[in-house]
Amino acid sequence: MIRMVLTLLMFLAVAWPAAAGQVRIKDLVEFDGVRGNDLVGYGLVVGLHGTGDGLRNAPFTEEIMANMLERLGVNVSGEQFRPKNVAAVFVTAALPPFARSGSRIDVSVSAIGDAKSLMGGTLIMTPLTAADGQIYAVGQGTVIAGGTQAEGDAARVVTGVPTAGVIPSGARVEREIDFEFSQLSTVRLALRDPDFTTAGRIETAINASFGRPVSRMLDAGTVELDIAATGTGSPARTIGHVENLTVEPQRRARVVVDQRSGTIVMGDDVRISRVAVSQGNLTLRIEEAPIAVQPNPFAPGETVVLPRTSAQIVDEPGIGLAEVSGGTSLAEVVAGLNALGVAPRDLIDILTSIKAAGALHAEFIVH
What we know:
Blueprint: H1 2-15, H2 17-21, E1 23-24, E2 29-31, E3 37-46, H3 59-71, E4 86-95, E5 104-111, E6 122-129, E7 135-142, E8 144-151, E9 156-173, E10 186-191, H4 196-210, E11 215-219, E12 222-226, H5 227-230, H6 235-242, E13 246-247, E14 254-258, E15 263-266, E16 271-272, E17 275-288, E18 291-293, E19 304-306, E20 309-324, E21 328-329, H7 330-339, H8 344-356, E22 360-361, E23 363-366
Parallel strand pairs: 14-23
Antiparallel strand pairs: 1-13, 2-10, 3-4, 3-6, 4-5, 5-9, 6-7, 7-9, 8-9, 10-12, 11-12, 14-15, 16-21, 16-22, 17-20, 18-19
Subcellular location: Bacterial flagellum basal body
Protein name: Flagellar P-ring protein
GO molecular function: structural molecule activity
């Protein structure tokens, strides 16, 4: 599977170099002031089928439920009620930029007690606050859980995470963010991956589009755009024009390795200096098979367990000493190693060793 993925990536890099070169500016930068805000709230999910919080282990659930009932005019002072169809949850959401009152946003719901599942539950009206403590949205609706569970008298099966879920369009915006975008005289473009070459190309593309110098590169991660100099008279119209301009980004050579899944992702600009590679495998196998020895029936004595261990070292075939010429691309090296039948795990070890030898000229990231 890994070989198929690597082959597909190399084919795409060779077959479509021009299409992959030009990228819209909107996909490379974040515009200053155009950002979302995180919201959080604490509420209750009701209507669960006996999978809610155990109120003895989650007393905060009983407290908030009593407070909510009293606000609704139900006096529960001194009463003891311990339903199993209620769960305390944290509710999170992201308020998008320029969200207006009355618009709806998605929310995520996560249990914080010992509830077993939120399937079939309904979130009761929950205020969502931002970092400033102000309420910007109110969430309510039916929870769509992210997993399922089934259980019997002696067994239980759980798939996914049934204690977390989402409510599509589950919150209504009640307060707007005070931000006068139309009054901006300058807008800064922040590159997601700072690079001097890419920032310079963005500056050149913007100035060429307007026919005069309306932008300047401040550093590797910032390009400043002068709205007044563009002559459009509107920051929104100017940004709408600039974000669709295309440039060819310059990126650093990088190799990303995930050891858990054996995944390798690389760029076509990675280069390897002249180096020799040799690889082999030693596998140690130890097996324990104890034997129980019992005395004859009605004979004196005790049952004795005798240990029996089998130890074996296997020298599995690897690859002999191979030389890689200078300037070779990583794609060519990986293709050659795949042709020799090198396993993905061994391929990761070889790349790590080449990097340690100083012959892999790229940023090496291991997860």
